[in-house]
Design brief:
Layout lengths: L5 E2 L1 H11 L4 E5 L5 H16 L3 E5 L5 H9 L5 E6 L5 H9 L10 E5 L4 H7 L1 H7 L3 E4 L8 H15 L3 H9 L7 H9 L7
């Protein structure tokens, strides 16, 4: 299994917020009790995104039931919980309904680390939804490494097409909108004094 970057749940929520509608990503459970950790993620998504958040188990879920659950409503945040016991046939079934799973609200696929190979082998279409957005659940939510901080800053730079220097200059000139992303940007730069 390749190495996946670790992300605290607050960073997962930030990524989903930045991406907006129709966002998919996968989280690999790395902590003791997967169900409890999944609940922690659900709480963080609800708090950060200000969206209702549901956990939908994939085990034993039929096409009709899953489609209904994802589309009523379709603008909340959903965590698809794929336990370590999800069979190859269930992955394949999930894969065949990919287009029926498209929705406005974000989707997080919660899987066991050893299930990544089954995801790639039996659900390649779902894997393409996720792309490179596969992260290991961070053991210490809220604490960012230097690499994670730089990665987040790069996301902000790309999204807003601004440099760190320009953001700091605009903040000093009081020309920066008081949006949460700009506050976060300044804090990540160590310029919380400009907030």
């Amino acid at each position: 299994m390749p190495d996946f970057p670790s992300q605290p749940f607050v960073e997962v929520a930030r990524r989903l917020e930045m991406r907006g509608e129709h966002s998919w990503l996968a989280i690999l459970s790395s902590r003791g009790d997967p169900a409890a950790a999944c609940d922690d993620l659900s709480t963080e998504l609800h708090s950060f995104l200000q969206l209702p958040t549901r956990v939908v188990p994939l085990r034993g879920s039929s096409f009709q039931i899953l489609r209904e659950q994802l589309h009523h409503p379709e603008d909340d945040a959903v965590i698809l919980f794929a336990g370590a016991d999800l069979e190859a046939g269930e992955w394949s079934s999930l894969d065949t309904m990919r287009s029926a799973l498209e929705r406005t609200g974000p989707v997080v696929l919660w899987i066991a680390p050893d299930a990544v190979a089954r995801l790639a082998q039996f659900a390649p279409n779902i894997r393409s939804f996720i792309g490179t957005s596969i992260f290991l659940a961070g053991a210490e939510p809220g604490i960012m490494t230097d690499k994670e901080r730089e990665s987040r800053l790069e996301e902000l730079r790309q999204h807003y097409q601004l440099s760190d220097q320009e953001v700091a200059r605009r903040a000093e000139a009081k020309e920066l909108p008081p949006e949460p992303h700009f506050v976060e940007w300044l804090v990540l730069l160590g310029r919380g004094d400009l907030v």
